[in-house]
């Protein structure tokens, strides 16, 4: 974990502020988080994140189209096993470790950009060390509990959770690969 996060720490940062913080939950803390998450789901409490999500209706056409394609493709791929997604989500994807990426509650969009770059670098570092990773909003769906369990002060917010571990190659859900847009839909080169 230390090597993975240390490599992520080399991520370029706006004005070199490096304002990110990382809390890696394992062991008893992660068990508490998983229990609290499942209890919240079972009680019917809706999850939310400290980064307000963009409702699909407010997304640009390209985003709506990509989300719709992903959802349809995943349902088609899993077929009758589609319930695996709900089960896996409720269990926080059985991750043996979750890296929580934090940023100040009062931050600019540049900080959010830096945090995204940091997360990508963290996942690439994990892959280089033979560890699988998975970012998921589900990991940060109950920030009130996370603040309490992980003793994170209110002046920081949970930006993203990245599950770290080793994928179960037998689980069909782990064989799914989302469709990527063709390059000509998002690249313009001018001279």
What would your notes on this structure say?
By secondary structure, the protein is α+β, with helices and mostly antiparallel strands. 40% of the residues lie in helices and 15% in strands. It has 6 helices and 4 strands, in the order H-E-H-H-H-E-H-E-H-E. It has helices spanning 2-8, 27-42, 61-78, 83-90, 109-128, 143-150, and strands spanning 21-25, 97-104, 132-136, 156-165. The chain is globular. The N and C termini lie far apart (44 Å). The model has no long low-confidence stretch (mean pLDDT 92).
Give the proportion of residues in helices.
Answer: 40-55%
The largest sheet is:
4 strands, antiparallel
Catalogue the unreliable spans: none
Task: Please count the helical segments.
Answer: 6
Quick overview:
The chain has helices spanning 2-8, 27-42, 61-78, 83-90, 109-128, 143-150; strands at residues 21-25, 97-104, 132-136, 156-165. With 191 residues, the chain is α+β, with helices and mostly antiparallel strands. 20% of the residues are buried.
Keywords, separated by commas or semicolons:
6 helices; 40% helix; four-stranded antiparallel beta sheet; 15% strand; 191 residues
């Amino acid at each position: 974990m230390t090597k993975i996060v240390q490599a992520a720490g080399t991520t370029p940062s706006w004005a070199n502020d490096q304002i990110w913080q990382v809390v890696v939950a394992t062991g008893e803390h992660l068990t508490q988080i998983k229990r609290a998450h499942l209890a919240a789901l079972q009680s019917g409490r809706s999850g939310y994140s400290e980064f307000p999500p963009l409702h699909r209706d407010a997304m640009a056409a390209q985003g709506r189209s990509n989300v719709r394609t992903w959802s349809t493709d995943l349902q088609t791929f899993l077929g009758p096993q589609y319930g695996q997604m709900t089960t896996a989500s409720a269990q926080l994807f059985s991750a043996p470790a979750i890296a929580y990426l934090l940023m100040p509650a009062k931050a600019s969009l540049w900080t959010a950009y830096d945090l995204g770059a940091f997360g990508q670098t963290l996942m690439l570092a994990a892959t280089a060390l033979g560890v699988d990773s998975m970012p998921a909003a589900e990991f940060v769906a109950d920030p009130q509990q996370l603040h309490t369990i992980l003793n994170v002060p209110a002046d920081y917010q949970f930006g993203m959770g990245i599950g770290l571990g080793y994928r179960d190659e037998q689980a069909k859900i782990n064989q799914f690969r989302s469709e990527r847009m063709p390059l000509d839909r998002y690249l313009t080169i001018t001279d």
